[in-house]
Specification:
The protein is an all-alpha fold and 436 residues long. It has 20 helices and two strands. It has a two-stranded antiparallel sheet. β1 and β2 form a beta hairpin.
């Protein structure tokens, strides 16, 4: 490919990133790209066969840029040595790199979340964060862990926890406020972020990553077996499958709400589009009824399980077990909710339903968490949301959960320990020295 062709191809990719990110990938029209470039669609088709081809190239560009940046970071950290020899300094240095990378290119932040959600639906969590051997080795060094004998499985879990903590708090920088027709705060990747804002969120992320989200409970023993036995939600407790609701959840979780047309939903069910309108007036009504139905059942079941325990640490772990087993029985629900949040879907439940769900959500949060005196209620709510974010990201790593069975819960237990005690607990315990 000559230089001029490569230059145009690079420009197409850059414009697709920036223009589509402005809509949180709700509108991925090739016309948006060609209009901004001032070229015709046939000119674009000389480089990309269709939109899917362009998306594949965007993912390759994103992966290459991340890989190059990670390699440069690890190389610099290795030369400085101080980061490698102290896990707190190492995490601080890594978060500085991570925050800089995504705030300097906010369209990458939007694209990564778009990619994250698609992977969550397609692979139930596997491969959400690209694995870079050099970065895994960096985390191993800052924790003072020896080379593993049986693979990097647990170090990779640590790396994902660090990355997810950092990325979640980066997303907080792009909160765009609560729209009048939304029940959640929207994400606005076009807003200008100040260094003061970056530093404040980064410090929060560093503290939580190092110390955990509930360090005051880090010494409390948990009888994992008893909590798992009582808190597990079985398939028989789930709602009876409804083919329309199941199709809505499936299509939205795979494509996002913007791409989930009535035609695709009808095709998934195996009926014609006009038949759907016999039950619902439009696509929005389908999604609203799906959300109301599934959320009510999930909150009810999780609240029942958490309320069975008196101790704070048992309630916290019961929440993990109940949510994970519920998602294992219906993995598309949380993906649908995250799509709605990411793409700022302006749907509002009827007031009585909205008020009831919000009260049930708040009741559950107060049952699960006992905030330290130093934490305000807003921070506590954010941490509660992070638990959902964290659990959804790890679904693919828990084969027992996907199978809907209570076996080999080591992965969930490790994740819980990371959540409550952070890297300090992991470094102290050397991840229980398993696999070494």
């Amino acid at each position: 490919m000559n230089d001029r062709k490569q230059e145009l191809k690079d420009r197409i990719l850059t414009i697709a990133f920036t223009e589509w990110a402005k809509t949180n990938f709700m509108k991925m029209s090739l016309s948006l790209v060609t209009a901004k470039l001032g070229v015709t669609k046939p000119a674009l088709y000389r480089h990309f066969r269709n939109k899917d081809d362009l998306l594949d190239a965007m993912q390759q560009r994103f992966s290459l840029d991340v890989s190059t940046a990670v390699d440069a970071f690890v190389s610099n950290a290795g030369r400085e040595k101080s980061a490698e020899n102290n896990f707190a300094r190492g995490i601080r240095a890594y978060f500085r790199f991570l925050f800089d990378f995504f705030t300097q290119k906010p369209y990458y932040c939007s694209f990564f979340l778009f990619y994250f959600l698609k992977k969550a639906a397609q692979e139930h969590g596997q491969g959400l964060l690209m694995r870079y051997p050099a970065l895994i080795d960096f985390f191993r060094k800052i924790l003072g862990l020896p080379q593993p004998k049986n693979g990097n499985f647990r170090i990779e879990r640590l790396a994902r926890f660090i990355n997810l903590t950092g990325f979640f708090w980066i997303l907080r920088l792009y909160k765009g406020g609560r729209k009048k027709d939304c029940n959640h705060e929207s994400l606005d990747f076009s807003r200008r972020i100040t260094e003061k804002e970056i530093s404040a969120e980064m410090e929060q992320a560093i503290v939580f990553c190092i110390n955990g989200y509930f360090p005051d409970l880090s010494e409390n023993a948990v009888d994992y077996g008893i909590v798992e036995e009582k808190a597990w939600i079985g398939r028989e407790e789930m709602l009876e499958p409804d083919r329309i609701f199941s199709a809505v959840e499936s299509v939205v979780s795979e494509m996002g709400w913007a791409e989930a047309s009535v035609e695709r939903i009808a095709e998934r069910i195996g009926i014609n589009k006009s038949s759907l309108y016999f039950y619902f007036r439009n696509k929005d009504e389908m999604l609203l009824e799906t959300i109301r139905r599934e959320q009510e059942q999930m909150l009810k079941l999780v609240q029942q399980r958490v309320s069975m325990f008196e101790g704070s640490v048992e309630r916290l772990y019961a929440f993990f077990v109940a949510v994970v087993s519920n998602i294992g029985n219906n993995p598309t629900l949380l993906t649908v909710l995250h799509w709605m949040h990411f793409q700022n879907i302006g749907l509002t439940l009827p007031q009585k339903d909205s008020d009831r769900l919000r009260k049930e959500f708040e009741d559950l949060r107060f049952t699960v968490t006992t905030a330290p005196a130093s934490r305000d209620d807003k921070t506590e709510e954010t941490i509660f949301l992070f638990m959902f974010f964290l659990l959804m990201s790890e679904m693919g790593l828990m084969s027992a959960v996907k199978a809907g069975k209570k076996k080999d819960m080591d992965g969930l237990r490790q994740l819980f320990e990371l959540f409550r005690s952070g890297m300090t607990g992991a470094q102290k315990e050397k991840i229980n020295a398993v696999d070494y």
